[in-house]
Specification:
five-stranded antiparallel sheet, mainly beta, six-stranded mixed sheet, single chain
C-alpha cells in the first residue's frame, strides 16, 4: 500500500511493506491524498543555450509564495565584483525584485556573456509544504569587436569636486538603447537626492541632481554595464565603480554691470573680486548669463579665437597668452589674469572672458575646484544648456523630460526607475 509520510518538513514517497501498528481499540486510518506542492516555473527555459545576456530571469509559482531566489553565474570572465570560485571560475550573483504577493520574481541586472547561469528557487504553500528547483541555462559569448569599450567617467576616482559637478559618462561608440543604459548606471550619495540622466549627443550621458549636491559627502557611480546591449549586437562585458567626494560649497556670483565677483564658501563671503567682462559689441564678445560650472584650470593657456570660430584675418581675431585661467564654458569663456586691462573693476572691455588682476586670478585658480559654481547675471546672452557644463540651465522639469526614463533616480540606493533588459525579452 502506497503512503506519504512527513520527514523534516519534506514529503517523502515510499512503499510501506509492513502493516502499521494500531492499538487494540483502533484500526490504522488511510492517509488522505496530499495536495500538490507549489509549482515553480523558471525562464529562460532550463537547458537552453545561446541566451542573450540582456534577457531577464523570471521565476513564478502557482499554489504558494516564493521564499528564496538566487541566481549564480559561472564562467563569466569579466565581472567587476566577481568572487573567485572553484577551479578558477569567476562567480557573480544577480539580484532581483519580488512582487508583493510573492508570486513572481524578476532579475534587476543583466547576465554576463558566455556564462553558465544557475537559478535556485524555493517556494512554500499555506500548509508549509515546500518546493525547490534548480534551473540552468547559458548565455552566448560576445566577440571582441562587439564588446562595449570601457567609458570615460568624470569625476575620476578619488577626486574632490564642487557642488555643481555633473557626472559625465562618455562612451567610445554611439549608444542606441539609451534607456537600458541609463537604468544600468546607479548613482548613490551619502545625502540622498533626486537626479536624472540626459544625453548631450549619441555618446555622452550626463547625470545631475535636481539642485546642487549637498556639500561634504561621498558619491559613488556604479556602471553595471555587463550584459547591457548598448547598440544592436554590442554588449557590455564589465562593470565599473567610481567614487568621488563633494567638497565644500563654493558659489561665485557676478552681476556683470557691477564689475565685481563675490565668492562664498559654505554660505560665508570670503572674497570680492574686481572684474572686467565682455564688451558686448557682438554676440561672440558678450559674457553669457546663467549657471556656469567650473571646468578645466590652467596655469598658462594660449587663447586663440580660431578655436571658437573666429579664424586669423577675421574681424575680432585674437591670440594671446594668459595666466591662471579657469574654463567656464566651451564657447571660449574663462576667468583669467589680464594685467593689460586697465578697466578691471570699472568697465567691461574683454572679448567675453572675465578679466581679473594677476593676484585675484591666481587666487581663483588655486582655490576653486572642478564643479564649483559661477552664477552670472546682467547680460543679453544666455548660456546654452550644453555649452560646457551649463546643465542647470535646463529646469528640473525640462531635465526630466529629456531623460530617457522621464523619471528621477533617487540616490539612496533605490534601483533606477526602469528596466535594464532588452525590449520584448
Amino acid at each position: 500500500m502506497d503512503r506519504r509520510v512527513r520527514f523534516t518538513g519534506r514529503l517523502v514517497t515510499g512503499t510501506i511493506a509492513a502493516v502499521l501498528l494500531a492499538t487494540a481499540c483502533t484500526a490504522a486510518e488511510e492517509s488522505a491524498p496530499a495536495a500538490p506542492r507549489p509549482r515553480i516555473s523558471v525562464t529562460p527555459t532550463p537547458g537552453e543555450g545561446g541566451i542573450a545576456p540582456n534577457t531577464p530571469v523570471r521565476v513564478s509559482v502557482d499554489g504558494g509564495v516564493l521564499t528564496d531566489v538566487s541566481v549564480e553565474q559561472v564562467g563569466a570572465r569579466e565581472w567587476a565584483s566577481a568572487e573567485l570560485g572553484a577551479e578558477g571560475d569567476e562567480r557573480a550573483s544577480v539580484g532581483g525584485s519580488l512582487t508583493e504577493d510573492g508570486s513572481s520574481w524578476v532579475s534587476d541586472r543583466n547576465l554576463a556573456p558566455g556564462s553558465r547561469v544557475s537559478v535556485y528557487a524555493t517556494a512554500e504553500d499555506a500548509d508549509g509544504e515546500r518546493s525547490e528547483v534548480v534551473s540552468t541555462f547559458a548565455t552566448h559569448e560576445v566577440a571582441e569587436d562587439a564588446r562595449m569599450a570601457d567609458p570615460f567617467v568624470l569625476p575620476q576616482e578619488g577626486q574632490t569636486v564642487g557642488v555643481g559637478m555633473p557626472i559625465v559618462v562618455t562612451f567610445a561608440e554611439p549608444v542606441e538603447h539609451r534607456e537600458q543604459v541609463e537604468n544600468s548606471m546607479h548613482v548613490t550619495s551619502e545625502k540622498a537626492t533626486e537626479g536624472a540622466w540626459n544625453w548631450t549627443d549619441g555618446t555622452t550621458a550626463v547625470f545631475r541632481p535636481e539642485e546642487y549636491w549637498e556639500p561634504h559627502q561621498k558619491v559613488a557611480v556604479d556602471l553595471r554595464l555587463t550584459g547591457v546591449e548598448a547598440a544592436d549586437g554590442v554588449f557590455g562585458v564589465a562593470d565599473r565603480r567610481v567614487e568621488f567626494e563633494v567638497g565644500r560649497e563654493l558659489i561665485a556670483t557676478m552681476h556683470v554691470p557691477d564689475h565685481r565677483m563675490d565668492v562664498e564658501v559654505d554660505g560665508e563671503r570670503i572674497r570680492s573680486i574686481p572684474v572686467s567682462n565682455g564688451k558686448a559689441e557682438r554676440r561672440f564678445n558678450t559674457t553669457t548669463s546663467g549657471v556656469h560650472v567650473l571646468m578645466e584650470r590652467y596655469a598658462r593657456l594660449v587663447m586663440d579665437s580660431a578655436t571658437v570660430g573666429i579664424p586669423a584675418g577675421s574681424p575680432g581675431y585674437y591670440r594671446v597668452d594668459v595666466d591662471w585661467a579657469v574654463r567656464t564654458s566651451n564657447s571660449g569663456e574663462f576667468t583669467h589674469a589680464a594685467p593689460w586691462n586697465g578697466s578691471i573693476g570699472h568697465a567691461n572691455r574683454s572679448n567675453g572672458c572675465t578679466n581679473m588682476s594677476v593676484s585675484d586670478a591666481r587666487w581663483f585658480h588655486d582655490n576653486t575646484l572642478m564643479g564649483d559654481v559661477l552664477e552670472t547675471t546682467g547680460t543679453s546672452r544666455e548660456l546654452e544648456w550644453d555649452n560646457g557644463w551649463g546643465f542647470y540651465q535646463r529646469s528640473w522639469k525640462e531635465w526630466l523630460e529629456h531623460s530617457e526614463t522621464g523619471r528621477p533616480q533617487v540616490t539612496d540606493g533605490t534601483p533606477p526607475p526602469g528596466t535594464v533588459h532588452g525590449e520584448d525579452l
